[in-house]
Amino acid sequence: MSQLHYALFTGCTAKQSTPELLSSTLAVADKLGIKITILEEASCCGASHLQDFDEFLAHVLNARNICYAEKLGLTMITICNTCQLNSAMTKHALDTDPELKARVNEKLAEVGLEYKGTSEIKHFLYTLIDEYGLENVKDKVTTPLSHLNIAPFYGCHNIRPSELHEEANGHENPYRPSSLDSLIEALEGNPVNYESKNKCCGFHVELQANHTSEVLAGNALVDAIDNNADLMVTPCPLCHLKMDTYQDSIGKVMGRDVELPVLHMPQMVALALGCTEKEIGLNFHVQRAKQLYTA
Amino acid sequence: MSEVKDTRKVTIKAFRFNAETDYLPYTKQYEMEVGKDELILDLMNRIKWEHDGSFSYRRSCRHGICGACAIKVNGKSVLACKQNAIELLDLFDNDITLEPSSKKRAVKDMIIDKTDFWDKHAAVKPYIVADIDPRPEAESKQSIAQFNALLDSDLCIQCGACHYACPALEVNDAFLGPAALAAAYRFTADTRDEATEERLDITFQSGSGVWDCVKCFECAEACPKEVNPIEKIGKLHNMQFEHGVAESNVATRHAEGFLRGMKKYGYLDEADIVTYSEGYLGVYKHLGAAMKMMKSGKIHWHSGIPFIDSIPKIKNLDEVQKLIEISQTNKL
């Protein structure tokens, strides 16, 4: 297999509140021999909120990010479901609407860029599965996770709307997703089967509809806990932030203790591949997760 | 070559409940040979005709236009008269359970009480409001472009699939939900309509309006007519700013405030977005979480309280600044 090489769109959280997501992603890529070029020019994707304010501007800025992957001639990979969604929505809009593409390119020309539509956009989870291959991941496991019951939490923006994502996510069934389950199995962990795995975490209304947000996150955490999960794992740092940071207040809303470590998908892989504690970065979690190093 | 079988023997499970006589719902199983052209509605008919005459469901047009037969299968919303059965059996490894769109609103088996759906639909004034001459001399014409702007939202058949797939509605009874909001967009976007500001006012109320959407895309996935309600919710968001009726509140500042960090760093400024959106008085709610995040090294507080400015800047930041300057169309 020739060496895989991707342009990494880090997103904002990996550069700020979840540095462990970036360090574990790079550590996993290194262990697997995947070459990563970080798109240091890429800006925020708008996280669906800028889109609510000014949809056209959001398309312009996302198209600019994709231009930098196109310049390198590489597939753009994401490590955040919401970055994936917003980048893919812009790509889809521009690739199917020549008039919009022309309007966006008119703006991009002012900074010497042109969106062509030549780069694919894929979440790191699906490059591991579809391009690197789970059998190959399995071969690199040094610390099997066989002692852990792991609840996969898929996050909305990688699986819905399914029509938008189906090329990039291996036609994942949004009502019964399986990719993260099979990754857990490849690392020899025990995937927890629970109803909430494909539900919403509530992150996006954390500020304006806090109760809704807390109940949605709480329902999923409690469902995982009641199905004997030792930890939850998610490919989305926004799900991680909601589910990891707010367990105290979620517990109050749910009327019971809610305690569960929530790992980023690359952190789980990094654990199984024997990456260093510094690379995995469980110390950055609000909910204690450090016991997982030696469990 | 192996022979292609025209039928498949499967066990179909169905949610059963009669609100008048049953304390709890239960599941019943029905064995049947399913043909390759049969629809979920055919299976429901066969349960009723061949197994149990008391099995109840709504059906009418059988053409995907009346919206009566929307149910869920394994959590997936379907119009029973449009959905091929074998296709679903393939999707779910031959294990399917027929359920009403909303179990908690079940009256009898697949039949639910849709009162909340109709109340919310009516609340957005889903009709053209216009002061017109009762005896007009000419038609009220629309261009193709004007019609196309609302076409897909006009395809809604009020089946309730999106409404009962919405997790925000499950938690927040006041939320208008995706179907009502898509209908609000349909009439607000109509150039013959004169109630733009009134409807925008209804749809931006905190607690019930567009800002309570959780952005899960369940509605887009559920809709059998490709109305894509969440896209219409996004358009309503934008229309509030376009028409200059958006009030400055936590939700609108949250949307607009992304630009503050992006202009300075290219990235969202995570601490600033909370303080700016909530206002300095509202931010106290987040201090507990913020302290925990600081303790674990997740955040570096630098805007609310002077601290080390730790947000990295993207390369070629000037391009983002320039693009915002020349492309921004809306204002708060």
Give a description of the structure.
The complex is a heterodimer of chains A (295) and B (332). Chain A contains 14 helices and 8 strands. With 295 residues, chain A is of the alpha/beta class. Chain A has 2 domains: 5-122, Up-down Bundle (Glutathione S-transferase Yfyf (Class Pi), Chain A, domain 2), CATH 1.20.1050.140; 140-293, Rossmann fold, CATH 3.40.50.11810. Chain A starts with a strand and ends in a 15-residue tail after the last helix. In chain B, the strands form 2 sheets. Chain B has a 5-stranded mixed β-sheet, covered by helices on one side. In chain B, a hairpin with a 2-residue loop joins strand 3 (70-73) and strand 4 (76-79). Chain B is an alpha+beta fold and 332 residues long. Chain B is globular and about 70 Å long. Chain B has helices spanning 40-51, 85-91, 115-123, 144-154, 167-171, 177-188, 196-203, 218-222, 229-242, 250-256, 258-264, 270-282, 287-295, 317-327; strands spanning 7-16, 26-35, 70-73, 76-79, 96-99, 106-108, 111-112. The chains are: A alpha/beta (295), B alpha+beta (332).
Topology:
The complex is a heterodimer of chains A (295) and B (332).
Chain A: E1 5-9, H1 19-32, E2 35-38, H2 49-53, H3 55-72, E3 75-78, H4 81-96, H5 98-109, E4 121-123, H6 124-139, E5 149-152, H7 156-159, H8 162-165, H9 179-186, E6 190-191, H10 210-226, E7 231-234, H11 237-245, H12 247-254, E8 262-264, H13 265-273, H14 277-280
Parallel strand pairs in A: 1-2, 1-3, 3-4, 5-6, 5-7, 7-8
Chain B: E1 7-16, E2 26-35, H1 40-51, E3 70-73, E4 76-79, H2 85-91, E5 96-99, E6 106-108, E7 111-112, H3 115-123, H4 144-154, H5 167-171, H6 177-188, H7 196-203, H8 218-222, H9 229-242, H10 250-256, H11 258-264, H12 270-282, H13 287-295, H14 317-327
Parallel strand pairs in B: 1-5
Antiparallel strand pairs in B: 1-2, 3-4, 3-5, 6-7
Helix pairs in contact in B: 3-6, 4-6, 6-7, 6-9, 10-12, 11-14
